[in-house]
Amino acid sequence: MKFPFKTLGLLLASATLASCGGGGGDGGAATPQSGSITLIATRTNLPLNPNNILPYPGSPFMAEVSFTFRNSSGQISALTQDATFTTSSPSTVSLSPPDDPSTTNVNELATRVVSFPATTNNGSYVFFATSYDVAGSATVTASAVDPATGLTVTKTLVFTVQGATPLPAALDIAPSPAGVYIPGSGGQTNSVISVQVRDGANQPVPDPGAVDNVSYEIVGSAGGAILQATSAGGPASGNSVTTRTVNGIAAASFQAGTVQGPIQIRATVDRSDNNVSNGIADPISATTTVVVSDGKLFSLTLTSPIINALRVNRVSDGVIPPEDVVPVGDDGIPDDPDATYSLTVSALAKDRQGNPVVPGTVIRFGVVDEPYNVASDVFSMSGVNGDAAEGGNLFTAASGLFVTGGGGAGPGDVLAVFGQDVQGNSDLESALTVAQINSQTSLTTASNFNLNNTTGVSVNYGPVLPYVVARAQHGNITATGVTNDIGRASATLNYTISTLGFLNVIWAQGESVDTVTGGAKRVTDVEIGSYPGLAPASITAAPSPIIGNTTQQVIVCLRDAMLAPLQRVRLGFAFQLGSGTGTVDGVSGTGVLGSSTGANGCAVANVVTSGLTASSGESPSGTLTFFGGGTSTSVDIIVNLAALQVSPNLVIVGIDPPATGFNIQIGAVDTFGNPIPGVAITGACTVTGSAAINPASFTGTTGGNGRTTHSGSATGFTIAGPTAVGAGSCTYSTQDGLSATVPFISSAGCGFSPCP
Questions:
Q1: Which CATH architecture fits 643-750?
Q2: Which end of the chain has the least Cβ crowding within 10 Å, N or C?
């Protein structure tokens, strides 16, 4: 039978059998007597295989094992059923069959199995035993059914995998969790400090028996913390404890004290004898840190997931479960959208030591979005020169416009202060309700600002704070959330698709305790964002293509996956030109449009290009790319070569003197008569009679003014009787087939003297 494995194919080279092994029977006295099995291995002592290298011909980690079945008369005899081969410890020794050459895409030798059946060849078979990454011994058993008696016959062979001396060589230490809380905070106060001890072969050290082989100690000041462990003599606690490993792993419990901050715990083993109960002669140590904190809210960070953060709401929500009404498509858009979106917004709350706050801490969320000055793309009442009264409720700003900006502010509006944007003012990050408008530049809040005393001293940096005064008109957000075990609280921002792209200010806020004064304080994170659309966005630009070397208007529109327009978005642009220049709304090269997208999601781009070379075949003269919302679109810029212009259009050759120099300018122009640089022009001149034009051929390329010049001289245009003898012309052409001809005549040939 073919071996039932699928692996990579390699050719197996047989090894010479060693004389180790033995024979075996069924071990009983059954009548009639059964046959016996012999197992002979090239070696039964194998080196440790720490990198788990797969079997291959000639592997130093592998032994070849020969199986033979003999009948009761001692003759090698064929089996009528498959033999079976099994290892007792696959992490120490695994088995593999020889490669079957008929399975060209599979190398059975390069497999590692616990047990497998195989068809023998007239009672003989060869298989392989390979060491793994665990030292120790493994018993390999071969079994077969005697065809004469029907009884099962077995034989075993013991393999030993040798590692290094089983004494400590390395240890790893890790706390779980890495941060705990002081007693009374409501959070977890203990951490399990695990230590894994390995010998020189990277194996777990043997269990030490009735002695301890790991020592734990708190390094430096314990701050009231203690360690607890089970030692050989029973439970132990204190700043240092000893314990023992089981299968190479030991554990101790760290119990937090009342002092906050990082606490170091060191674990030590004795490399000389794997015993710390009798002293430590040759120490190996590892250190870890557990952060102890109070779990009180100190900082907040707002964020929103990028993937699966936005939900398209449905008309059927709240009536019948959506999955029972209309299925949501693969694009996340249901068949019955209600023109509103919901965005997941999260805040990560930490205490002063960086640990998550105690689970269940309440976090409030809020949003404002108007009044907004669309013309200047800023909130109507905003600036960067705000001044908050530390510990008080007065806020002033020279740029305030609190009475007139966007119609003015009033009680109930929100003052958002971005204190974290200015170094030294993070404690003044705020979102406070306006109680009263005092003047154009002054207002009073309903609650006090923090003291800005994170250093222990209240600091006033003056009018340096960015701020916004606004109210909510377009969106709403879940009022509160509570933190989980990692300090995260989440809320849902809801809004209509008619306001996609509108800027907003979102905040997360919670109550805490001032570590300096012991009084109450608010912790806030305020961020400016926008109402996002559903990805992927799409952007269009028309007309496309546009004509180069002229002025054109391009309408650029940005929409989300629901084709809802994204408003108030300043789209970017970038030119890709081989020559010439381009500007959009007066900005050259790359930049942003001069105006934001309007209610229809569109903005008008005034595009001016000049100095572009003519388009060639299907290749445009350049492209203009517009981008925004994570997507982009490109518009080709076409310059069509419309005509060649020559000046002068007639060359009069003099008779006396008999030669005339000439300078003919050849110009290339587009459909609008604009000059085109970079156009290759060739010319060929022909003459009759005694006339000559030198040079008679021309090759040139139009320059920046769209022109090139053919210069030379003309001779031999003479008079014989009343008429001129000799005539000629030069014809200029482009690769696209455009041409222009300049005739040459003598001054007598025009019939007047001088010729007009």
A1: Sandwich (2.60)
A2: C
683 and 666 in contact (C-beta within 8 Å)? yes
The span from the CA of 246 to the CA of 230, in Å, is 12
Domains 20-162 and 170-293 in one fold:
yes
Output the pLDDT for position 447. Answer: 96
- Joined together, the tokens standing for residue 332 give 């996340």
> For residue 282, which phi and psi values (nearest 5 degrees)?
-135, 85
Q: What angle do CA 310, 316, 321 make, to 5 degrees?
A: 85
Of the candidates 105, 107, 89, 87, the residue with the CA atom closest to the CA atom of residue 97:
107
CATH class of this structure's domain 170-293? mainly beta
Q: What is the largest CA-CA distance in the chain?
A: 145
Tell me, rounded to whole angstroms, the distance of Cα 488 from its chain centroid: 22
Contact 136, 102 (CB under 8 A): no
Q: What is the pLDDT of residues 44-95, one digit of tens each?
A: 999 989 889 999 999 999 999 999 999 999 999 999 999 999 999 999 999 9
Which DSSP string do the residues of 243-303 spell out, in sequence order?
A: E--BTTEEEEEEE--S--EEEEEEEEEETTTS-STT--SSEEEEEEEEEEE-----EEEEE
Angle in degrees, CA 343, 348, 352, rounded to 5? 160
pLDDT tens for 409-437 read: 999 999 999 999 999 999 999 999 999 99
Contact 429, 420 (CB under 8 A): yes
* Beta-bridge partner residues of 67: 39, 125
- Domain range annotation of the chain: 20-162, 170-293, 341-530, 538-638, 643-750
| Cβ neighbour number for residue 629 with a 10 Å cutoff | 22
Q: Coil, strand, or helix at residue 749?
A: helix
The DSSP bridge partners found for residue 173 are 195
Distance, in Å, from the CA atom of 476 to the CA atom of 504, rounded to the nearest integer, reads 11
pLDDT tens-digit readout, 364-390: 999 999 999 988 889 999 999 999 999
Residue 749 phi, psi dihedral angles, 5° rounding: -75, -10
What percentage of the chain's residues is helix, strand, coil (to nearest 5)?
5, 50, 45
Q: What is the C-alpha separation between 729 and 739, in angstroms, rounded?
A: 13
Q: What's the rounded Cα separation, in Å, for the pair 244 and 113?
A: 34
CA 196/CA 179 separation, integer angstroms: 20
Print the SS3 string covering 448-479: CCCCCCCCCCCCCCCCCEEEEEEECCCEEECC
d(CA 21, CA 551): 94
CA distance 519 to 683: 92
CA angle 383–388–389, rounded 5-degree value: 160
Find the DSSP H helices in 22-165.
Answer: none
Provide long-range contacts, Cβ within 8 A and 24+ apart, for 310-318: 310/341, 310/342, 310/343, 310/344, 310/532, 310/534, 310/535, 311/341, 311/342, 311/343, 311/344, 312/337, 312/341, 312/534, 312/562, 313/337, 313/338, 313/340, 313/341, 313/342, 313/494, 314/338
Provide the residue type at 726 as one letter.
G
Sort strands 602-610 and 581-584 into parallel, antiparallel or unpaired.
antiparallel
- Tokens for 558, please give them: 């940005």
CATH number of 20-162: 2.60.40.10
